[in-house]
Amino acid sequence: MTNYPRLLAPLDLGFTTLKNRVLMGSMHTNLEETKDWNRVAEFYAARARGGVGLMVTGGMAPNREGGVFPGAAGLFSEADIANHRIVTDRVHEAGGKICMQILHAGRYAYGPECVSASAIKSPISPFPPKELDEEGIEKQINDIVTSAARAREAGYDGVEIMGSEGYFLNQFLVTHTNKRTDRWGGSYENRMRLPVEVVRRVREAVGPEFILIYRLSMIDLVPNGSTWDEVVMLAKAVEKAGTTIINTGIGWHEARIPTIATSVPRRAFAWVTKKLMGEVSIPVITSNRINNPQTAEDVLSDGCADMVSMARPFLADPDFVAKAEAGQADLIAPCIACNQACLDHTFQGKISSCLVNPRACFETELVVTKAAAPLRVAVVGAGPAGLAAALTASERGHNVTLLDRAKEVGGQLNMARRIPGKEEFDGLVDYFAASLAAWDVDLRLGVEATAQALKGFDKVIIATGVIPRDPGIEGQGGPNVLSYTDVLRGGAPVGKRVAVIGAGGIGFDVAEFLVTGESPTENLAEWLEEWGVADPSDARGGVSPEGPRPEAPVRQVTLLQRKAEKPGRRLGKTTGWIHRATLQMKGVKMIGGVNYERIDASGLHVSFGEARENPTLIEADTIVLCAGQLPERSLADALIADGIEPIVIGGADVAAELDAKRAIDQGTRVAAAL
Ligand code: NAP
Ligand code: SF4
Hints:
Helices cover 30% and strands 18% of the residues. Strands 3-4-5-8-9-10-11-12 form an 8-stranded parallel barrel, surrounded by 7 helices. Strands 15-14-13-16-27 form a 5-stranded parallel sheet, with helices on one face. A 5-stranded parallel sheet has the order 18-25-19-20-21. The radius of gyration is 26 Å and the shape is globular. By secondary structure, the chain is of the alpha/beta class. It contains 21 helices and 27 strands. It has 3 domains: 11-347, TIM Barrel (Alpha-Beta Barrel), CATH 3.20.20; 376-467 and 631-672, NAD(P)-binding Rossmann-like Domain (Rossmann fold, 3-Layer(aba) Sandwich), CATH 3.40.50.720; 470-516 and 553-627, 3-Layer(bba) Sandwich (FAD/NAD(P)-binding domain). Helix 7 (228-241) links the parallel strand 9 and strand 10 (245-250). Bound molecules: NADP nicotinamide-adenine-dinucleotide phosphate and iron/sulfur cluster. NADP nicotinamide-adenine-dinucleotide phosphate binds next to helix 17.
């Protein structure tokens, strides 16, 4: 009996067979834009070697006006075709299969040349699109078809036509963005003419033996989105027009409902794909928030789909499938759906990587080789920086001892995992613990490392982390004042009315912890209700007419900062809005521009502005300090005084703007260079 029998079963497409039911979904990594084709090829080849059944590239623009941003990559010339050939050859040598995604962004294209069904600007772009005329539409179809033909020439096994997420083809489908009265607008038959025509003409151009995936928006999550009947009608029409596989798209980019963030429950939208099963006779793929083989297997055994798409999990671990096959699921580095190193990077124009795997997209640069001579390495601190350093050093063949005074590994991750919506951190800590055992790291927990005890090692890496910053507020020694560590680690009792001092990542986390009863991330029905997601058979686009219906907050929380800007402005680019919206739904009051005057039994006294005007009492039973952090360097300093030069990493090195992404990246790089 194999592990995950459904997930690892082959899928026969008639003219070709996929070795398993795992699709690596499209991700825009900005790698193609580097024009370093060896690097691009190695990224995909690593995933092919890891056993994934089929991969889809990041979105390639069919023409300049359809590119997501100016200069977006595409197959525009013979040279482009030759470059992509480097990628497809390398993938095929590694035993993989790869499709190229054709992505026309329509009104989401970040440039003044953008085009769409109607001249309606999107809320997430400053550029109003030009309404296409008949000739313009014909040009777009031709460009997409040409792109598909070139993909075939470049050696791809197929193409994915991006028809979801609110991009160009999706914009023709719904009246929200299509106000046309010609044969491309009005009735649904007219509105779906463009996607169906695109599929038909692409099939005509590429011939029968070429995979054609159509990514279909099954729940738009925007007002006036498609009805379920329309979704089914489109699915049947694209099947008839020549689609090989239908992939699921969930939500437009402008939707104000989270679809992939860590607080979205696992497999939260598989039920939507399931509704399409039986309506078409071609394979159907489901996606979104599926990040481990068991969840993927369950989705298939529940009849939700024929195949499962996972994208970010392949940044976290290129060997996802191989490890699943080998019964080593506990050694799969899990994608925690944080977006911190992937989508946040993409939207900042940086190359994507992965918080848990800094080698993702840096395969040719951050190379972990076997060490010429094994060293005795001590790592102090089993938080993310120390864990990454210890594992990488072990992987290189060094003899590693990892010490921590705590009784468990994980460091600050153990606080993060207590936050509602951050349950994925559990899996990350478990993965680290399993990997330490697999790599034979000598783990010593509950041990206070001393300078004396570290003398016999060749290298000492200090990853002792951070200590909370003392904000020095009058009255903070009172019994009603707690540190975030007391709340998240110590389980200290907290009153009903709370003032949180500091609105950084931890202040937001603590506020979320304090207002939430049971985590909706653990309860799909509650989560859907909380965000106002309805069955698309009952409400257009799956947007509930009643709107979001969050559970009542369990405490009344005020979140404060001294900066006069909007609290939460500096949170993650693609996830900050979710944290702000969650707290707003729970009635958290957010106040910026305060001076902390004093704390007494009645609460927190603040004033405003340089002149310390408008004295105000924030009535509170408990005040929680989340005022940032400072490096914990006492052991590093003691070692230096003793003549040992340690390598200091993570928060012990620089506490400002520390997060697990920087900690793991630094730990990995330091150990790779030992
Ligand atoms: P932080 O993000 O730097 O925030 C510190 C907060 O304390 C700020 O709101 C700051 O605002 C306030 N502060 C600073 N000095 C103060 C003082 N002397 N007195 C009173 N208030 C003071 O740090 P953090 O919240 O401790 O988080 C640590 C790191 O973990 C951050 O880099 C964060 O990004 C990361 N993290 C990320 C997430 C995430 O979801 N991505 C979650 C948790 C933590 P004012 O100076 O304006 O008062
Ligand atoms: Fe997943 Fe976060 Fe890595 Fe992105 S950065 S792939 S969301 S773990």
